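Please, structure for the following, as tokens.
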Amino acid sequence: PGSESSCNAMTTSSSTTTTMASCYNRPSSYPPSETCTKHCSPGNGWWDSYEVDGRCYCKMDGGSGSFDHGIGDVIVCTPAGPRTVRQVCQQIYDVYGEGPTQNRIYFNTVQCGHGPPNSAGDEDLDACPGRVDMGSQGCHIRGVPWDLDGAYVFSVDAGADQQFSYSVNTASVTATVSGVVSSDNVTYSWRYIAGPNSPALTSLWNSDKASANILVSGRGEYVMEVTATKGSTGEFVKDTVTVYANNPDNNGNIPGRIEAEAANRGNGLGYVDMTPGNAGGAGSRNDDVDVYTTPGNSSLYVGHVTAGESLTFTKWTQSGMYRTTLRVGASGSGGMRTLQVFASNGSPRNLYGNITFNAMGGGMLQDVVVDGVGELYGYIEEITVKFLSDDILLDYFDMELVTTTQTTTSSREDSCLRSAGKHVVMLVTGGSVCMDIGVCPEDYFRNESLWVNSGAGNGDGYCQPCPVGEFREGPGSDNTCYVRTKSSSTSRRVIVILSLIFLGFIFLIGCIWVTYRCVSKRENVIDENQVNLYPGKEPNIQFHHQMNEANV
């Protein structure tokens, strides 16, 4: 409420959308309120707006709009200053269009159940401003208000933070803009502004597009900045996104020791922590992992945990069965605490079930040997400790190899593929490292548009399954899928039949040879009552099973 001038130069903030949406003023020529019973029962044709996918749209009828009972001339406050309802609805239409046609919820007022009301009286707050599809029961059900910030404020969003998988060291970052129309001709520019070191950012392409791709070679946090510029006015806005490269941390492989404070980076990605900041203040981390020093400052540990938090570590691992010993405790009172240990190279596996221990409390650390053994598949694994109780201290945990897993080369290669998400990698002969071989496995083809040929050792390139009904016969230079035709199927059947005939022939020859040898040997057997025909050599004999004597 207030005069038209009160809308000028309003400051936008996260809380101004509702304020501006409810700030309206009827012009002096506004018609007097028409009669409407305060207990209205609206019909489906009453609607002037609708909500879909969390956004409120005006009834625009393809762009012309329909503003009855004087509502189009009502002044409302916007981030760009005072505007008529007609102007606001046109701006929303120009920026967002009309939205999906499915799952719409229809409302009586022009702002999804919120004001301003028209002059008919049926949209007044004590009448029926809400939904029109529920009779009088929906009269006071409101939807979301107009997104005036999104419609008028020119902004760019670089998207949520994300992380690389080590075997997939590329990422796609995408920007979205608000408060623009097609005639603004927005252009984009991406650049790398912070991280481990510039050379670690191996490549950046499509930097002039809304979606850009980056390639890295080192562990760390990469901060990317996007600039969106209106070609119509030259106005520009910026935003940043952080991409975390949680490669194996080079602080020891498995089997070995994992230090709690060396967890991966990125809250919600490499760890989960529900309280902001490093509550312990120790160590070199500047994120939300709470790192403390043990008495005497001899080592670091993670504490102040809340149930549901977790720490993840990316490690090179040797395949086999492992026994784990945890160095844990509690800062407060003692008692039972529970946690879990997961491993993953594609899908998480709970290695030991619930691990429950009786903490001594008072900040004292103790060794807990976990019952049973858990299997690691080899190559790269993400080891995650998930806390199911509050107040657990974790200093480190040791993973000891008990028995190695006898894994064939083919299954090890499959493990490489599994770890790399079907990227083109294989096991180096005689070793335990996966490398890029530049070809795809059987019934997979190489997607050239996603191919990144940066050399052996990176696990680059992307293989996709052949379409249904097509195939590719094994690795090779030809990465094309073919339709499985009748002639190709017939050829395969002929080859199989000829192979079976050949094997049958070999088997028959073998049987004849064995029969001949048996008959020949039987004819040379010496009867015990016959004279020895071979001077100097007695025939071999055997004892009876129950008699330990024999005559020679």
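The helical segments are 16-22, 85-96, 148-152, 409-419, 486-523. The radius of gyration is 37 Å.
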